[in-house]
Amino acid sequence: MSTSTPSSPTLAEPLPTAPRGWHKLTRLIEPIVLLVPSGVWLLLLLVAPTLLILELSFIPGFRLGQPTGGYGIGNYLEIFRPIYFQVIWRSVLFAVGCTVTCMLLGFPVAYWIAVMAPPRWRNLLLVAFVLPLWTSSLLRAYAWITILRPSGSLNSLLSALHLPNQEWLNQTPAVYIGMAYSFLPYMVLILYASLEKLDKRLLEAASDLGATPQQTFWKVTVPQTLPGIAAGGLLVFITSLGEFVVPELLGGASSMTVSRLIYNQFLGATRNWGLGSSFSILMITGVSIAIALLLKYGDRDSALT
Amino acid sequence: MNSTIPKPRLKISWQSMFTLLMFGFMYLPILIMAIYSLNSSRFSTAWEGFSFRWYQRLFSDVRIFEALKDSLTVAFSAVGISAVLGTMMAVGLAKFRFPGKGLYKGVSYLPLIIPDIAIAVATLVFFSSLFGVLTPIVQSLNAFLAKMGLLSLPLPSLSLGTVILAHVVFCLAYIAVIVSTRLTSLDPHLEEAALDLGATPLQAFIKVLLPELIPAILSGCLLAFILSMDDLLISGFTAGNGVNTLPMLIYSRVKTGISPDINALSVVLILASALLALTSEYIRYKGEQRRLNR
Amino acid sequence: MSSNQQNRFDRKSAHLPLPRFSPTRRRFLKTSAAIASGLALSNCARNLSNANTGSSPTGSPTDSATSASGKLYIYTWANYTDDELIKGFQEKTGIQVVADPFASNEIMMAKMQAGGGSAYSIIYPSDYTVIEMRESGMLTPLDHSRLQGLDTLKPKWQNPVYDRGNAHSIPAVWGTTGLIYDPQKVGKEIDGWSYIWDNRKSLTRQVTLIEDVREVMGATLRTLGYSYNTTNPDQIKKAYSKLVQIKPTIASFLTTGWEDQLASGDITISMVYSQDAIALIKEKPNLKYIVPKTGSSVWTDTMVIPKSAPNPDAAYAWMNYLLQPDVAAGLVERLGTATANQAAFDLLSPETQKDDRLFPTEAMLSKCEGVAPVPARITEVYDQYWTRLTSS
């Protein structure tokens, strides 16, 4: 709303050097202009709903349309059932596996597009890589069922190549394939943003100085793209922790994840919004701690705090 | 065009082969959808003959295109707003120190962590309470305006607008995260140098910082766009009457089985956006050449 | 009743100075406590704009979204209306129809309760959701004097368990839950669930079940001779122990998406809704759908008018239109859904009438029950077992 007001006089400033007063004023206004609009937006539409969830998590057995008791920590005590630990453990395992897979598959792709491909084609290649995600994730998951089912396309191909058939559907490998498929483009996009501005002269200099490609990679490329690697890893980890359509459709009968559990509490048979909220808060807290640790140790050398 | 960049090596490296393989991986399900969208059978068990029947059905289905229109409106508006706000936020967070900065940063990560369903439900509750407060205000304002003989304001209600409002939250977060990543590894002295040379902060921002940030902003937008186009729960809970996004339609149709016309839609969508990307890239390339030749 | 709700709303809004950010945390919590308790006390469908114009079912002329008397907003399953139906209705009544789809009863309920569905005058909940909606006071009792053709409903739907005397709802579409399989692959005719238990050694990952705790547990309860809707924890426990025996045979819990796997032979048996089975059998006539002999569930999706309906007149017009035998019969032919309207049934081709997948015989139906809501305490028990089943 007020974004344009302070900026237009600055633009109209014809002098090459602005007067001192201006500098002082802009120094005051700039952070406000930059941070307040999104701050207000987040406060209204993110912080307020989140506090509501926090509150619901302290009302045991809160259900829509039914009288509820007072506050209590019953929901949090409920979480500590062995069965839920199993679910949490599986979710974390899926998320970690998916993150590692995406990193291993995504880095060479992002590197090739950002560094090795002809510059003219880079944008196009990047867009082409993420284009499949334009389609509904549900439909893609169904397409993977068609591919991975025992008599599906994959096994037809393997038979044609005289390779042993695989029975991956409704088991863990299918989950990793489906999740890696869903999140690989995210990883590539983020790594690309980081690799694209990699100083290629440094790579040349390194090889001129006699470094092997491996040495160049580990000593030059990786340190320079570390923020991207961290951000990509984090983003994929978090979003895959929240994914439940793929595990459910491809993972078979034992594929309950935390997100699905939360979903079930909100929109399933029980509709225990209190318990669902406390699981949400648990997830938020857990991931926040992970992020905080990562920011503390991963971001040390940067100017950000 | 630039002498410092080595000539693109067109020799075949393992990276290029691997990338090709990954492209194959990305397009395999799309290929499957494309094949079975041309199958005359409704089910993708076996090939039962070539047919355009699903495409015919798709193009005669007005509802799908209305849903597509709603989805695109939401995605473009939300991503457009978020691109501006998210970039400003990332720059602001990188530049300034202030009390509560850590909290602000933490909150900006929140949309990535909160389960969709929780935030969707909570946002709807928030909206409906807010409208409960706003409605009498607007009504009395309208009574006042009517006395003055002016137009009356619409009463607040769920609409396409509320979906956009809600989508901006997560789009904002994703764009800000990616732009921050880029900012972290940017030379902070560039902007200072511009300022020392007499540029106003805005000039320094637009001429120096922004070009450096464009790739990150674009990839952030792409990501946000994808997420917005695929969101079911947040749209489902914040949409007004008559507003249907594509995922809302698809998920509700799945109740009675998926029919290949939706697959046909996926294929059409991908082809259309590929064409769009190619054209814009071609125009950009021509423009660049013209500039170089001048 | 209506004034009572008005009071509730007033109390709530009195507590709600602003759900925004107040300076202190305490105040915010208090505010949101009001939101939450308001949420718990009243269903918020009427707390939106139209609450101020009174929640009487005569509509809210000031609500801009719905003021056009010629517009009817419907909240329904995606495949229950088609253009022909909507066009026919508009020609007859001049009322324009906007049909919004929902993906599940639960999503619909949550949206209505959280205040997001104030414009809908017709909703299509399933039977068990009708009970829930009625119990939370969300439904308008139907004025039967304004409906023509109720007497032509099949006897079974004249006085259904989920809504005695059709006081709040009208049946729209119904069906059963059963098993679909390929007789050639199995090598014999299956008549019920016992086949899976008897052959559990050879059926590893060969079965898909519906992704719904009550359907799956209910079917197992029936094989033990108990009711689908038991509230006896011991019986539920027994059913769970029995179900665990066939866990290795379960490939996946899928309500949709099993079609390909079944038709290609990668799965031997699927537990499905009759409607989905009929659609697949149309393409793959070699498959067979059965209602298990131990009994199964029969479900009904209905039409209701919510209390918050802005245009009840149009809603009645819609119900009357769908009660017309020729309209209902047309829907059966076009959409492949079963009608509960005897007069419409009589208009169908003998071939459709004889289709016992679409219209099961009385003998089959007599063993079927509808899924009814159980107390929250019992729902929790079901949910615990479900989590155990799907995570171990």
Describe the structure.
The complex is a heterotrimer of chains A (305), B (294) and C (392). Chain A is 73% helix and 0% strand. Chain A has 305 residues and is mainly α. In chain A, helix 2 crosses helix 13. The two termini of chain A are 29 Å apart. Residues 1-16 and 300-305 of chain A have low confidence and may be disordered. Chain B has 294 residues and is mainly alpha-helical. Chain B has a domain at 56-125 and 161-267: MetI-like fold (Orthogonal Bundle), CATH 1.10.3720. Helices cover 76% and strands 0% of the residues of chain B. In chain B, helix 3 crosses helix 10 and helix 4 crosses helix 6. Chain B is globular, with a radius of gyration of 24 Å. Chain B starts with 13 loop residues before the first helix and ends with a helix. In chain C, strands 4, 5, 6, 7, 8 and 9 form a six-stranded mixed β-sheet that branches. In chain C, strands 2-1-3 form a three-stranded parallel β-sheet, covered by helices on one side. The model of chain C is unreliable at 1-68 (pLDDT under 50). Chains in contact: A-B, A-C, B-C. Chains A and B meet through helix 1, helix 2, helix 4, helix 5 and helix 6 of A and helix 1, helix 3, helix 4, helix 5 and helix 6 of B.
